[in-house]
Amino acid sequence: MGEKNQTSQVKQVYLLRHGETEWTLSGQHTGLTDIELTKNGLKEAKLLGKSLKKVHFDHVLCSPLMRVRQTCRLVGYEKEALIDKDLLEWNYGDYEGKTSIEIHKTNPNWTIFSQDPPNGEKAIEVGIRADRIIEKILSLDGTVGVFSSGHFSRVLGARWIGLPVSAGQNLLLSTASKSIFGFEHGFQVISLWNDTSYLK
Predict the structure, then answer these.
(1) Catalytic residue flag (residue 89)
(2) Phi, psi of 139, rounded to the nearest 5 degrees
(3) Exactly one of 20, 89, 96, 121 is catalytic; which is it?
(4) What does the domain layout of the chain look like in residue ranges?
(5) HSE of 36 in the Cβ direction (CA atoms, 13 Å)?
(6) Residues 27 and 99 sit within 8 Å (Cβ to Cβ)
(7) In terms of CATH, what superfamily is 9-199?
(8) Strands, E, within the chain: which ranges?
(9) N or C: which end of the chain has fewer CB within 10 A?
């Protein structure tokens, strides 16, 4: 990924993270637990939608998780969205629902990007999923909207520009954020990252 790609007809890719949940507030790792947006999360999703009013998506890919589908619906693309399991959040295994503080009591300095979670998904597996999504994006034309979750989206950003999965640790991503992928001189680039200006 990240290599020069002159054949793709994709104009831009909008990467959109879901709105706030109770677990994003508490700092609990939310992988495959299917929870809804908070009232504020619903508001965030609506504001994200307003920021995209002048944007038309020719294709929309969306995670099957409820919090992501709610965000997609409030942005206005529920009917057009193609649900793709490759956009699921990282499976945190035994660390699902736990905060970093709780995890560090038994595994100091752990982060999802530094060590695979016990009985969870390996970084290499998440990277393979991200690469499949990128391949799918590059097979499309026009403007593409991608709705997913925090850690997976950070991996997707890293892989888009040819960096390893671990580089996602350097790509902070807020709830209901908007990022844009594109091309410059045929190379895959990130032209906007973690925009939340419309939430203020």
Answers:
(1) yes
(2) -85, -5
(3) 89
(4) 9-199
(5) 7
(6) yes
(7) Phosphoglycerate mutase-like (3.40.50.1240)
(8) 9-17, 59-62, 82-83, 141-148, 178-184, 187-195
(9) C
Residues 83, 73 contacting (CB under 8 angstroms): no
96 is catalytic: no
Q: What is the pLDDT along the chain (200 residues), one digit of tens a residue?
A: 555 554 567 889 999 999 999 999 999 999 999 999 999 999 999 999 999 999 999 999 999 999 999 999 999 999 999 999 999 999 999 999 999 999 999 999 999 999 999 999 999 999 999 999 999 999 999 999 999 999 999 999 999 999 999 999 999 999 999 999 999 998 999 999 999 999 98
CA distances from 185 to 5, 9, 15, 55, 182 (A): 9, 14, 21, 23, 10
SS3 content of the chain, % helix, strand, coil (to 5): 40, 20, 40
- Nearest CA among 6, 71, 63, 77 for reference residue 37: 71
Q: Dihedral of CA 91/195/3/148: which sign? A: positive
Q: What is the layout of strands, in order, in the sheet containing 82-83? A: 82-83, 59-62, 141-148, 9-17, 178-184, 187-195
